[in-house]
Amino acid sequence: MATTVDCEVLVVGAGPVGLITTLLLAQEGISATLIEGLPDIDNSPRAMAYGAAAVLELERAGVAADARKVGMEPSDYDHRLRWITIDNKLISEFQPEDKLPGSKDPVICGQYTLARIIQDHLSRYPSAKTLFNHKCVDIEQDAESITAIVETPEGNKRIKAKYLVGSDGGRSAVRKILDLGYEGFTLPQWLVACNVRYPFREYGFARGQFIVHPDHFCMVGKIDPSGLYRVSYNEQEHLTKEEVLANVHNKFEAIFPGPKPLSKDAYQIEMISPYRLHQRSATSYRKGRALLAGDAAHACSPFGGMGLTGGICDAGGLADCLIGVLRKGGDDSLLDKYAEIRRKVYKEITDPVSYGNTCALRDSDPETAATSVEPFKTMNTSPAARREMMKRAYLVGHDFRQYWPTNVETGNKDEKHPAVATTAVIASANPEI
Fold first, then answer.
1. Cβ neighbours of 265 (radius 10 Å)
2. Which of 22, 83, 120, 203 could form a disulfide with 91 if both were Cys (CB 3.0 to 4.6 A apart)?
3. Which ranges carry the FAD-binding domain (predicted)?
4. What's the predicted TM-score (pTM) here?
5. d(CA 39, CA 41)
């Protein structure tokens, strides 16, 4: 007798990873319920730019165009990204002519705004529903189903599904309930993410740049057409959170271009969020009928845009594996493949690259970095070298549809899943992934 379930897939965590996973499932007619413990989508300043592999997933989910419409002005999509000294001397940069033929424009859009766009798309599918103020507090599972015990304002309730996805962030309740470890380390510095208004362009800054400096390494990037910028900088590890917040003006004084001393009236802070940086991965991304994605599965430094990029690639891959099992006749081993490959991608690409990006910003001599430090040394070699670096950005993604049963009609893969176009690049760069 078939097990009666409330939905086929229960997704825990309504950030972009959970939302994209649910949207891709709903587009295939799979009944999916998305729950979130908060009363609404979290609006704290986090990601604001997404790597090439994540852009492909946003494209096929149908949300990339809307994100570009609200995210930036057309002139900001110039494919220019700079690394500079604190006094705005160029160390290295990607230039417009480095764009790969046929590649998509980037998506530059605050994480909260992107989540709202995905939520709007998700609302169009009757097979999906989203429930806020629903906190997962326990999980039970057997051979045929998995049940979440959910805390709500009206009391606890049970939601039964065939599979459960934990996409509930770095402090994941799902990961903790499953008793999966979170191996790795925490970086000593604070990371302070600010949404701030300041005329950076008037003082020679570009749309996006990283500052290389041992004490003030940071990222400054425009995130919307109104001139709002994200400034993400490091702060000393021994400070309390209150001391970090009290020192914001002094950090801006050091980082911002323009007249000195910097007037507090020259800028407007709209949001600020100090948090710790982690390089961590769950010991497994699957336990029975439960799977992890995004920060629930792994965390990394945001410098270089590897964090949510990897999470969105998780979402696309996990959705494809669940579709393969629930709709395409694939067996349960597809989910093991997801867990193994996504963890391998994190360990071999996301973790070392994201940590290396942070070390390059923090530990380099800004005056000699252009000729002595990677990745700047390679970037300054030639346009061809920079294009090879851009190709490698696609390695964070993976097309799991290739593991569906061979008799399944997948349609025009190049249209439906643009990541297929990068298969040759992925295979040549790392045949084992």
1. 6
2. 83
3. 6-351
4. 0.92
5. 7
